[in-house]
Amino acid sequence: MRSDGRVTAATAGPARMNPGTTNTGWLIVVSQSLHGLAYVFFIIAGQIFADKIAPPEIRSSVQAPVFAATVGVGLFLGTQFAGFVMDASAADGKFQWRRVWMVPGTIMLLGVLALATLLREPPAEKQGPPPKAAAEVDTAAVSRHVQTLPEA
Q1: SS3 breakdown of the chain: % helix, strand, coil, rounded to 5?
Q2: What is the pLDDT of residue 7?
Q3: How far apart are CA 113 and CA 117, in angstroms?
Q4: Which side of the chain, N or C, has fewer Cβ within a 10 Å radius?
């Protein structure tokens, strides 16, 4: 919001959802915080899934294209698509916010349905072995190594 109380482009959408007020700064802060958390969880979930389904010898090779697709190509294409949607949703120089927000809402609903129906846990035999935990270190090998160290 501008200092003179007028609504700027960044707060125009939330202001339309709450007509009669221009004090939407808190809404912007809250929505951007939640958006950031959702984005981070999406990136982490993608990396965990890639780590889980990839054999150990190619795990890092699988994680790199997943990251590039989401952070590189995905952001570029998403920005281009958002511009197209905004242009297509303008009438008389004003954005039709209901139409604008229906597009990502529909995409999200289709994505959730696709993930719920198509994404399945890989069979146990196709999963790589779990990484060794610190407690599973070969203590006999460590003892032999410590015994061969020169005394100080």
Answers
A1: 70, 5, 25
A2: 47
A3: 6
A4: C
